[in-house]
Amino acid sequence: MTGGRDEIEALIALMARLPGLGPRSARRAVLHLISKRTQLMGPLAEAMAGVARTARECARCGNISTAPICEICEDPKRATGEICVIEDVADLWAMERGHAFKGRYHVLGGTLSALDAIGPEDLRIPDLLERVAAEGISEVILALNATVEGQTTAHYIAEALEGRGVTVTSLAQGVPIGGELDYLDDGTIQAALRARKAF
Amino acid sequence: MTGGRDEIEALIALMARLPGLGPRSARRAVLHLISKRTQLMGPLAEAMAGVARTARECARCGNISTAPICEICEDPKRATGEICVIEDVADLWAMERGHAFKGRYHVLGGTLSALDAIGPEDLRIPDLLERVAAEGISEVILALNATVEGQTTAHYIAEALEGRGVTVTSLAQGVPIGGELDYLDDGTIQAALRARKAF
Ligand SMILES: [Zn+2]
Ligand SMILES: [Zn+2]
């Protein structure tokens, strides 16, 4: 027996750890990759190695980037007075696909959860409070998911920002009860942003 | 703007070409990979590059391997007189998971299809006929999917092998109508192999 099958098995086992892929779909994916090893598998391996080497969290907002400070934070055309607070980078990407928000972001990295013992210090909440002061922010838009955890976190942040001279708003119209931002179409996100209301 | 987001977008676009992953699940997978770049993304990129470099089709049976002749064809403990004919490598893996077949394989690489203009020469059917003669094969087990195309292909091969002194059998009991091998549990495959009947 050569080691060939073992290498392929090891690859399948790694692929099966991706969200949405089980052992069976990982096998299918690997066979597909092998059948397209020049056009797809080689370039994919290279792209993955490149991103693994260079991707990091933006030190300011928590977005994923290959620079210490991400392109959104560095973009001089983005409004400096507004911060949109989202739970994770997938939600940031969902907001960007809406092309409606022209300010900057702050990625919390999750939501408060008594059950999982996740407190404000486990998220980027202290960083947010610092940014609001240091960057002269006039509006914080809470774009958290319409889940219990998301709304608990939104209330916590709104209270923490009270008396700091900043308007706190939240996405309103269009976000369905229990819905998650990353599942919404672009139009819904645009409408929700336009109709944002004082929190 | 730095090129960082572009690299990540390029990776997402490549991931979205995997079977079972759309643009949305590709984004989720890439974010997951980035969040686990040391434990998962780096090793996965490396494993993929390794397999892309070394994987090839066995020159004898069409199985995927890293050697010119695969480990099953080279294994002296496998019975030499029996060939099991399957449509693709996923089906070969499904047969191997059943641990019931101890002979060798022949991967057709698809099925005959008038609609898609796939004839015997587009599959490994001529190679199969050569192997039957050259390797002194006594039994050819047709383990093709129970689909119209699979059964058309089975009939074609059975006819082509007529008068060549070889017994042609097919998987029988346990393969559901319209079912595909790769979806069956191991026990069903074992039962179907044990109850194989003359074709
Ligand atoms: Zn940033
Ligand atoms: Zn082989």
From TrEMBL, chains A, B:
InterPro entries named in the record: DNA_Rcmb_RecR, Rcmb_RecR, Rcmb_RecR_Znf, TOPRIM_dom, TOPRIM_RecR
Q: Which GO terms describe its biological process?
A: DNA recombination; DNA repair
- Point out which parts of the chain are C4-type zinc fingers, as ranges: 58-73
**What GO MF annotations does this protein's record show?**
DNA binding; zinc ion binding
> What's this protein's function?
May play a role in DNA repair. It seems to be involved in an RecBC-independent recombinational process of DNA repair. It may act with RecF and RecO.
Q: Which Pfam families match?
A: RecR_C, RecR_HhH, RecR_ZnF, Toprim_4
Q: What is this protein called?
A: Recombination protein RecR
For this UniProt record, the keywords arranged alphabetically read as follows: DNA damage, DNA recombination, DNA repair, Metal-binding, Zinc, Zinc-finger
Residue span, Toprim domain:
81-176
The record's family statement is: Belongs to the RecR family.
The UniProt entry, under Gene3D superfamilies, shows: 3.40.1360.10, RecR Domain 1
